[in-house]
Design a protein that fits this description.
Length: 443
């Protein structure tokens, strides 16, 4: 087969693995758009109540995501090496970890739920609804953990369509229940929380059933039948990713907390703009999942040429998609903000920062896809160092200084965020060329 044909096939494979995940996440974000718009129509207080715990829920979700990366990397590498017994052991470990992590995080969140609103600086008229909302969305965390980790394990087999179908169904259910609870039943913010709770349970149960029956996983025998070496590998892969996620999402929490003290209008504009931007970087996360899987398989096969082609294809596709996303975000910034809220001040301020961040999308794509490549090779410590330094030294500290000492506004805050993303993209992308040889040496 000619070199051009090999490259084209790998490029198409990368696309085939990435597209279902991209579609799933795009539809998920669109459903969240509708959800946010329905809550926004209740009033700014309702939007603030739901947004108060947004960054906390990111932090919660990042914990099972870390172990999902470990599961995806180990399973994809075992598939590449043809180690069926190891695939079975990692699958069993993934299920045990999903349940265990979910239970621990859920208990912690339920205990902390009365204090979250005050921690996030919610105003007195917002705090009661924000507290109830966080309590109800904390109840199904064990199901969310099962959903996230087992979906990552399934995607490692290149089966990205099944998690997509389950995710789409759960999100559609969430929107339907949102409408019923918020409008006909007039439950307001509480109704949105009930809808989230029910759809999360349905998604987790659905993912568990599919995982248990999946043809790639032999789950016969004892559930705890896995080598200590497998657990140690999972630890070495997952804990740096967990630290990355905790460092970044904790930074988002602090970042949102700083903005929340700027007033309801500014915080609403910031929160809605963050939600609106999410749709436009989904492409990067779709390719990140694909790169994690494909790089893991090539590492298991010990195929350096294929690894290079996977990296090249993933980076080119991601930058192209994210550049297009940036253009679309700039053009549709105002209609997007108007979709979420009718408040003229919120729309104007949100439009301004969205047009700013549109120029950041290609860099954000580079940052995202580079992480996927590192994860596929099982190298997670360096991304942790870069993520931590970027978040806290480039984003948080300058934001604090600008707000407290120089009375800067929301545009300045978003400039700090953009600078963080650009620098992380540079420091993660540059070393990729020599990454394979370092990974083989450390094996």
């Amino acid at each position: 087969m000619k070199k051009e044909q090999i490259k084209e096939n790998i490029f198409l494979t990368v696309l085939a693995v990435a597209l279902p995940t991209m579609l799933e996440q795009i539809l998920s974000v669109l459903m969240q758009y509708v959800d946010t718009a329905m809550v926004g129509n209740i009033g700014p207080e309702a939007t603030a109540a739901v947004s108060t715990s947004t960054t906390i829920t990111w932090l919660i979700g990042s914990i099972p995501v870390a172990f999902g990366v470990g599961a995806m990397t180990l399973i994809s590498q075992a598939i590449g090496a043809g180690e069926q017994h190891k695939i079975s052991q990692v699958a069993k470990l993934s299920l045990v970890v999903a349940i265990g992590v979910g239970i621990i995080v859920e208990v912690i969140c339920l205990v902390c739920s009365p204090f979250v609103a005050s921690w996030m600086g919610a105003e007195p008229d917002v705090a009661p609804a924000a507290t109830r909302y966080f309590f109800w969305i904390s109840i199904p965390i064990v199901f969310k953990s099962i959903d996230i980790i087992l979906a990552a394990a399934i995607r490692a087999t290149k089966d990205t369509r099944t998690p997509m179908f389950i995710g789409v169904f759960a999100n559609i259910l969430n929107v339907v229940l949102d409408y019923i609870f918020i409008y006909p039943m007039k439950l307001g913010v509480d109704g949105a929380a009930y809808a989230t709770c029910i759809s999360a349970v349905v998604g987790g149960v659905g993912m568990f059933v599919v995982f248990w029956r999946h043809k790639e996983f032999d789950l016969s025998g004892k559930l705890f039948d896995f080598d200590r070496h497998i657990w140690k590998r999972m630890e070495r892969l997952s804990f740096p990713v967990l630290l990355i996620n905790v460092a970044s999402t904790a930074g988002y929490v602090v970042f949102a907390g700083l903005v929340s003290h700027m007033g309801k209008v500014i915080f609403a504009a910031h929160s809605i703009a963050v939600a609106a931007e999410e749709l436009f970087y989904i492409g990067g996360y779709g390719f990140k999942s694909s790169a994690n899987t494909m790089v893991g398989i090539t590492y298991g096969e010990q195929n350096y040429k294929k690894y290079r082609k996977v990296c090249t294809s993933s980076i080119i596709a991601t930058v192209c998609v994210m550049t297009l996303s940036g253009v679309l975000l700039y053009v549709f910034a105002n209609p997007l903000m108007s979709f979420f809220t009718k408040d003229a001040q919120v729309v104007a301020l949100g439009t301004k920062v969205l047009k700013m961040v549109a120029f950041n999308e290609p860099f954000f794509g580079l940052y995202i896809i580079s992480e996927g490549i590192y994860y596929g090779l099982g190298r997670t410590k360096y991304p942790f160092a870069i993520e931590s330094c970027g978040m806290w030294l480039v984003r948080i500290v300058p934001t604090y200084i600008g707000l407290h000492f120089f009375n800067q506004g929301l545009a300045y805050v978003w400039c700090c965020m953009i600078a963080d993303n650009v620098l992380k993209a540079i420091f993660l992308t540059v070393p990729i060329k020599g990454l394979w040889h370092k990974s083989i040496t450390d094996r």
